[in-house]
Amino acid sequence: MYDISLTAAAMLCAAAALAGWIDAVVGGGGLLQLPALLIAFPQLPPAYALGTNKAVSVVGTSAAAVTYTRKAPVDVRLACRLGVVAALASVGGAFFAAGVDSALLRPLIIVLLLAVAAFVVLRPHFGHAPGGVVTRGRVLAAFAVAGAGIGFYDGLLGPGTGTFLVIALVALLNMDMVTASATTKVVNVCTNIGALAMFMWHGTVLWKLAPVMALCNMTGAFVGAHMALKRGSGFVRVVLLVTVAALVGKLAYDQWVAGG
């Protein structure tokens, strides 16, 4: 059904490895992996790139989640409950996606991301250590924002979901950056499985390529998770800011260059 050169395959494997690393540290690996698939297969419908991206990502995200939960203080029960809410909300977002012009949403997301970056820069201790009491109200807010809200956004548009989750968990549940990133991985596993099931149902996964890319993605995720655990919240904070900058650049390009 599709042909790919050795050079293109090597490029996709490298992109998958780096995407796995980025995703394990702070989320946002899809910003690299999905465009790489779209470039490699311009002749195929985008649904195949989306489906293959999920098939690859779910393996790397699972590897990162297992690595984190073994060494970081992750509340797996809370993370799974958030993941179920986010997965259900993402289905709702996907339902509305066809009727929403993403060009109208991108400027709002760019403003939100810039506000997030400014907040993190101006508060250098944000996410470095847990603090404050986590009340029932904060937990409910986390389910509303990190579960339902960001899950809906994931189905509706998608880019930067992991980054938004990290910020929300730090702000609402007083987590440090490493614990928030670890919790995000568990949530992402749930949402990725739900999305992958839909793509498998429609038969839009390139199964001959996905296992090789998944192995590379898993390797990158394993290395990224260990680096985050070893270097701590300061390292995750820096990667977060770089990822936010890349995301803003990508969305701005889509809005005013490619779309114009």
Automatic annotation (TrEMBL):
<keyword id="KW-0812">Transmembrane</keyword>
<feature type="transmembrane region" description="Helical">
    <location>
        <begin position="78"/>
        <end position="98"/>
    </location>
</feature>
<feature type="transmembrane region" description="Helical">
    <location>
        <begin position="235"/>
        <end position="253"/>
    </location>
</feature>
<comment type="similarity">
    <text>Belongs to the 4-toluene sulfonate uptake permease (TSUP) (TC 2.A.102) family.</text>
</comment>
<keyword id="KW-0732">Signal</keyword>
<keyword id="KW-0813">Transport</keyword>
<keyword id="KW-0472">Membrane</keyword>
<feature type="transmembrane region" description="Helical">
    <location>
        <begin position="104"/>
        <end position="121"/>
    </location>
</feature>
<dbReference type="Pfam" id="PF01925">
    <property type="entry name" value="TauE"/>
</dbReference>
<feature type="signal peptide">
    <location>
        <begin position="1"/>
        <end position="19"/>
    </location>
</feature>
<dbReference type="InterPro" id="IPR052017">
    <property type="entry name" value="TSUP"/>
</dbReference>
<dbReference type="InterPro" id="IPR002781">
    <property type="entry name" value="TM_pro_TauE-like"/>
</dbReference>
<feature type="transmembrane region" description="Helical">
    <location>
        <begin position="48"/>
        <end position="66"/>
    </location>
</feature>
<protein>
    <recommendedName>
        <fullName>Probable membrane transporter protein</fullName>
    </recommendedName>
</protein>
<feature type="transmembrane region" description="Helical">
    <location>
        <begin position="133"/>
        <end position="150"/>
    </location>
</feature>
<keyword id="KW-1133">Transmembrane helix</keyword>
<keyword id="KW-1003">Cell membrane</keyword>
